[in-house]
Hints:
Elements: H1 5-18, H2 24-37, H3 55-66, H4 73-82, H5 88-99, H6 114-123, H7 133-137, H8 155-166, H9 177-182, H10 186-198
Helix pairs in contact: 1-2, 3-5, 6-10, 8-10
The structure holds heme C (2 copies).
Amino acid sequence: xxxxxxxxxxxxxxFAAVFPWAGHAESLAIxxxxxxxxxxxxxxxxxxxxxxxxxEYIQNQLKNFSEHTRDNPFSRLYMWGATANLSPATxxxxxxxxxxxxxxxxxxxxxxxEAEGRSIYQLGMPDSNTAACVVCHGPxxxxxxxxxxxxxxxxxxxxxxxxxxxxxYHAAARPPxxxxxxxxxxxxxxxxxxxxxxxx
Length: 200
Ligand code: HEC
Ligand code: HEC
């Protein structure tokens, strides 16, 4: 993936507006991330979108990567290295910066499963006594506090994340996601990932 000169300039200007004190090293830090996450941080498979993600959540994940507690294959391969030398101050600045960018829906799910996904998201699964996703992730899947935005993330990423809790990864993940994900069937995961990929 190549960054054009003008895009680089926009990134640097955008960053300078957020961190007027920031020097060369800080804008380089952003570029290190957008190389994989996309120039506008809207995601570039397999890296998820970061634009509009919750600041607290991004910071928590950066800590989990650097402490190796987020341990699924792509995290090991890509994010353990990317966070190895990140100072807490830089991690904080990056989390803040990405949280201020506008998110964009990936729109890569299956439209035929959208209605089923919306129903599980909004109403939950009364049969398995599982709370509806909306209770924590918000009416428009925008997240709140440390609870992440899900709206607009890529189908492939959401599906992988929901499957991996059941496969035993993210041992240190906070409750309640390992338990909730374990109640979802393969079809329900596909429906939820489809629906969420279309949410703006
Ligand atoms: C070499 C590619 C690469 C680079 C460089 C990179 N990332 Fe990532 N990042 C990924 C991939 C791939 C994932 C998905 C991991 C997974 O599947 O769980 C990811 C996941 C993340 C997540 C978790 C998002 C979520 O929704 O849970 C955050 C936060 C993140 N990266 C931030 C950053 C930041 C900040 C930087 C720059 C310091 C950065 N990344 C650099 C590839 C990269
Ligand atoms: C009781 C609150 C709660 C409920 C209900 C809940 N979640 Fe979560 N969810 C969380 C928290 C907290 C996290 C962050 C976990 C972490 O920090 O690692 C999370 C993380 C996630 C992630 C990871 C996002 C990313 O960017 O990697 C996905 C995907 C997800 N939840 C999907 C769902 C779905 C689908 C449902 C409904 C079936 C649901 N959640 C219900 C609290 C909840």
